[in-house]
Amino acid sequence: MNYLGEPDYRHGTPQTLGILVTNLGTPDAPTRSALRRYLKQFLWDPRVVDAPRPLWWVILNGIILNTRPQKSAAKYASIWWEEGSPLLVITKRQQEGLQERLSASVPGPVKVAIAMRYGNPSIAAGLDELRRAGARRILILPMYPQYAASTTASTFDEVTNTLRQWRWVPEVRFVMSYHTDPHYIQSVANSIREYWAEHGEADHLLFSFHGIPQKYLEEGDPYHCFCRATARLVTEKLGMANDSDRWSVCFQSRFGKAQWLTPYTQETIKGLPAKGVKSLHVVCPGFSADCLETLEEIADEGEEDFLHAGGEKFGYIPALNARDDHMDAVAAVIQQHIQGWPEAQSDYDGESLRQEGERARERALAIGSKN
């Protein structure tokens, strides 16, 4: 095997702390061909579709990839921004916000890069960006507050698969979940209060999280419990935790015919008007950035379903995106996980390390090193 090496490595090169912020991914364009590439990568991941490979290969390549890309492309086109994919544009803004905060708060040099589990920029590209920046310690932060094997663990798989190909493997830490982090919970509650301040409170507040197959829960995936915990903590902040008529939890984006986590978001939205709910607000705390599943599935389709079923007023509360309190919360999560690394130490002395690096290079050159 040919490992990715560093033949041009220069002894004494300063080291950097690397932060890789990841999200699910996006097609490169709202076109059929781009969606076909994206869906092929996404749906072939066994963490996403845990089915026998030979049978699933036939279904995926023989049916799904010949029918679904065109429909998905039309949906993406309906929410595509002038700057590009909403998810990618927002993730870049998050990168900028985190870089600004960490550069100001971390004593040593720090570099924030972004990557997508599927599509571009790839995880391999993001890790390589950090490698080229001199990162020998890397924190991986999947922007999924609630752990799920199909999202967080899939990111772990791809990170480790990439690093297996490196000659010099960095020290790595991985954030698995931050679903109960007080700063994150507070930022969700803040976003809801601000929306209420502008639009008034609705009869009902619906927490919609992305769904997963029911069998994943039965096999030990904690995602369902983590989502419920997040919703409970947010409602406690809002002072409505004990008023079950005012809020509920549901799960969206069901794929295929298998049983997924219930109640389903679409069925819940359609059924609320019959229960006397005339106004509805939906918040999606599991999505750190707005994307197809929030902008099209909830903000557009959800509103249409609610009004068609007899509801009178619908509102989608935007994802946290690059809000200041969200970026503060994520920066705090990062700070917790980098403790003990040299760049995070209060006594970090960049000049002393630079001088030691120069002495190390002199010693290396003295014994025959080319660099």
Automatic annotation (TrEMBL):
Give the signal peptide, or none. none
**Superkingdom in the source lineage:** Bacteria
Positions that bind Fe(2+): H210, E293
Q: What PANTHER family does the database record attribute to this sequence?
A: FERROCHELATASE (PTHR11108), FERROCHELATASE, MITOCHONDRIAL (PTHR11108:SF1)
Q: Name one GO molecular function term.
A: metal ion binding
Which SUPFAM superfamilies does its entry note? Chelatase
> Per the database entry, which stretches of residues form a coiled coil?
none
Q: Which NCBIfam families match?
A: hemH
* Annotated localization: Cytoplasm
The role this protein plays is: Catalyzes the ferrous insertion into protoporphyrin IX.
Q: Which family does it belong to?
A: Belongs to the ferrochelatase family.
The record's annotation in CDD domains points to: Ferrochelatase_C, Ferrochelatase_N
> Which HAMAP family does the record associate with it?
Ferrochelatase
* Organism of derivation: Ectothiorhodosinus mongolicus
Give the matching InterPro entries: Ferrochelatase, Ferrochelatase_AS, Ferrochelatase_C, Ferrochelatase_N
By what name is this protein known?
Answer: Ferrochelatase
Q: What are the annotated GO cellular component locations?
A: cytoplasm
